[in-house]
Design goal:
The chain is an alpha+beta fold. The N and C termini lie far apart (about 35 Å).
Length: about 150
């Protein structure tokens, strides 16, 4: 069962990368288009293979009335792995739906798109998967998810 769930997550991640577009270089993601966005709730963490690998945050913009997810991949993880896939989104906690998810390969940080979820209970959501040089998962077990605290 765990292997099936892992395969489904990997398929989702690879599909998201195809939709978002893959890049070969690590770079910082562009932040929210609304400059007044600020962090809401407390930071969450993604653990991969028993080690904390990334931070997950949620931001809110009053002027745009939008939420954003954000993932920062820690240097210790980046130094220990040559390839990974990271994604960020905004999770509505009532139905566990991941809104405005964005993902990319070998990035230090990634922002979600703008999520129209300000009236819902939400959390920033992140996914991190260690991949081999072909872009496929190492064996389906070297991945993790995390979320910030919930904000209503």
């Amino acid at each position: 069962m765990k292997r099936i769930a892992s395969a489904a997550l990997i398929t989702f991640a690879l599909t998201a990368a195809t939709v978002v577009g893959m890049t070969g270089t690590a770079s910082a993601a562009t932040g929210p288009s609304c400059s007044d966005a600020y962090q809401i709730g407390s930071t969450g963490y993604i653990t991969v293979d028993g080690a904390t690998a990334a931070s997950v945050k949620q931001y809110y913009s009053p002027s745009c009335n939008k939420n954003y997810g954000y993932v920062y991949v820690w240097q210790s993880f980046r130094s220990a792995h040559s390839h990974w896939f990271a994604s960020a989104g905004v999770l509505t906690t009532s139905d566990n739906y991941n809104h405005a998810s964005q993902g990319d390969w070998d990035v230090t940080e990634i922002w979600s798109g703008a999520a129209s979820t300000a009236s819902a209970c939400t959390a920033g959501y992140g996914f991190l998967d260690v991949t081999n040089s072909s872009g496929s998962s190492s064996d389906g077990y070297h991945q993790g998810t995390g979320q910030s605290s919930t904000r209503c």
